[in-house]
Write a structure and sequence with these properties.
alpha/beta; 5-stranded parallel β-sheet; globular; Rossmann fold; single chain; 13 helices
């Protein structure tokens, strides 16, 4: 067994436990630059990601195939990866560097920006339900239904009684999804205000990233403490075994990507997706192919 494979075998048994939201959550006590488990430098992460990619590709393909055939597993299984975090925390980076490791045919990605007029006319979960991943897919939410207990709370766009009531609605919704065979992985990308400032300035310095910059992001920075309280409450109220929350240190992009990839691998390994059994007589089909004449 290679060094990378041995490391993967060890790490893949502890990832969910390490990053799971603690019962007594204190976001200020979690270091955004930390690496509480696994690798300590970018070079080591690059080698480990090769091992993780191979494993993730195999698991995703099995999940996709499982949905197309009759196997002894609950029907219609899927995975939903929810990404939440302050601006520049790396939601897009995770989609590119983590979700991008697998066959795009098995992915279903949705980005939730400011609600449209039509979306505001419906219940806040209306637009979310439309994007739940189909059986066999890994769905990724770039922002999510949690915007309605984060931005809506801090920006005071709805009364307190409304956003507080949404915790119970979210828990019921996620429990419903779990009952339908959707395995939920919720990641808060935990970034420091210092690192966010560096990334915002980098956007202004790079003509290829200027389109990502929004003056609104600076306004959100002024409410950083309020957002941290809102995040902490959302994580406390909406963490469950059916839909667990994980806090991912995200100041170091390489560590963030490694941690979420390892989290996906561990979760899918526990799910143990299976390829469907052959639906034809393999030996007979092999003989037919050999005997077939082309042209």
């Amino acid at each position: 067994m290679s060094t990378g494979a041995a490391t993967l075998q060890i790490m893949a048994t502890h990832v969910r436990q390490t990053f799971r939201v603690p019962a007594a959550l204190d976001l200020a006590a979690i270091d955004p630059q930390g690496h509480p488990i696994g690798l300590i430098d970018k070079a080591a992460a690059a080698g480990e990601m090769t091992e993780l990619r191979t494993r993730l590709e195999d698991l995703q393909e099995a999940l996709y195939a499982e949905a197309s055939g009759a196997v002894s597993r609950p029907p219609g299984r899927a995975v939903l990866l929810v990404l939440q975090g302050m601006d520049t925390s790396g939601k897009g980076g995770v989609i590119r560097h983590v979700a991008g490791l697998v066959n795009p045919q098995g992915l279903q990605i949705a980005s939730f920006k400011k609600p449209t007029e039509e979306e505001r006319a419906h219940h806040f979960l209306w637009r979310i339900r439309k994007q739940v991943p189909a059986p066999g897919r890994i769905g990724v939410f770039d922002r999510s239904h949690y915007e309605d207990v984060l931005i809506a709370r801090v920006e005071e766009s709805v009364p307190e009684a409304v956003w507080r009531g949404r915790y119970a609605e979210i828990n019921a919704f996620e429990s419903e999804l779990a009952g339908q065979g959707v395995t939920i992985i919720k990641c808060m990308l935990h970034i420091s205000p210092t690192e966010q400032a560096k990334r915002l300035l980098a956007r202004l310095d790079d003509p290829g990233k200027l389109w990502k910059y929004s003056p609104v992001d600076v306004g959100s920075r002024a409410r950083w403490p309020q957002y941290q309280v809102a995040y902490a409450d959302a994580l406390r109220h909406c963490d469950s075994d059916a839909a667990p929350w994980y806090v991912i240190p995200s100041d170091r992009k390489w560590y963030r990507n490694w941690a979420i990839t390892a989290l996906l691998v561990e979760t899918l390994t526990v799910m143990d997706p299976q390829f469907p059994p052959a639906h034809v007589d393999v030996d007979a089909e092999r003989a037919r192919i050999r005997a077939s004449v082309v042209g």
